[in-house]
Amino acid sequence: MKVKSLKFQNFRNLEDCVIYPCEGVNIIYGDNAQGKTNIIEALWLFCGGHSFRTAGTREMIKWNTDFSRLECEFFGQDREQKASIGFSGSKKIVSINGVEKNSSSALIEKFCAVVFSPENLSLIKRGPGERRNFIDSAICREKLKNAVTLSNYNRLIAQRNALLKDVLKNPGLEDTLDIWDTQIIRLGARLTKQRLEFIDLISKKAAEYHSGISGDKEKLKLKYISSVSAKSGDSEEEIEQKFFERCKLNRQNEIVCGVTLSGPHRDDVEVIINGKNAKTFASQGQQRSAVLSLKLAEAAVLRERMGEEPVILLDDVLSELDSGRQDYLLNELEGCQVFITCCERSNREQLKKGSVFLVENGKIKEMPQNS
Length: 371
Known about the structure:
Elements (H helix, E strand, L loop, with lengths): L1 E8 L7 E3 L5 E5 L6 H10 L22 E9 L2 E10 L2 E6 L2 E3 L11 E4 L5 H4 L2 H15 L1 H26 L7 H37 L6 E6 L10 H22 L10 E6 L2 E2 H4 L2 H23 L4 E4 L8 H9 L6 E5 L2 H6 L4 E6 L2 E5 L4
Parallel strand pairs: 3-13, 3-14, 8-12, 12-13
Antiparallel strand pairs: 1-2, 1-4, 4-5, 5-6, 6-7, 9-10, 10-11, 14-15
Helix pairs in contact: 3-4, 4-5, 4-6, 5-6, 5-8
């Protein structure tokens, strides 16, 4: 997949313009607070209409205007395509190849990208929810039906938790839990199976990328921790049985606590560098390298499963990396289109081949590479 052009109209602080990126590495250069991240955000929106920075749409509309619009021409699924996203108040208007869509989710499976932003460091630093979201985001962007499975599972868990609180007050309702458990176990086993398969695929690739980024000095491993003791190679039916047994074992505790204590919503992924838990023992630079490795591995898995190379979006990725790790990202990622934001002039000078865009106070200007 390659972005051919990206057009902005009233989007955040960016001046209305069109940019034409190259098919390799594109550096987006400039001082802080000039609008570099806005370009990365605009590209990411074409993955499904959701920002990685905000849940609302009003922030994406330029001050003193009442709408904004993005247009992207790209080559994907073996043909030239065009998509647009319009924002007006809280509304989104999405069009793909000239056909208006009912929902921004129509962009899923059309445009594929992987994004890294400084907020992604929470994937290692924070709790299990961040790591679950990382996996779920990847498998949901692969197939719309995976997103439906996740949405339905989360909805049922919320409803079951509400019922558990009612059971504590009215024990006669306990028998109705069986009805909810049947649906939750089926969807939960499917989701767990999808996650385990994704971790199996991503683990080896993440280790390879991390070895390259660290100059073969560090070894990265991933370990999926299932609350129902599901493991790689289990069939969906085997996971259902384990989930069913754990539900029976936990029921009385769940009634007392008022929450569902087992299932994919309680699982985690342990990130290990050189045999130690990265959350506890890794430095800031090591954690950044680990998250980058996971993101690049995610892109590789999506490429294999979808048959296309995702666009790689790297926001403020080079800070806190030594020159060797920076050089790897700028010059060793072959075959994919990359967008990297940076502030340091030295990063521009490191780039051996690609395009450079200067952003100053919302104005975007393509620059000679070594100017």
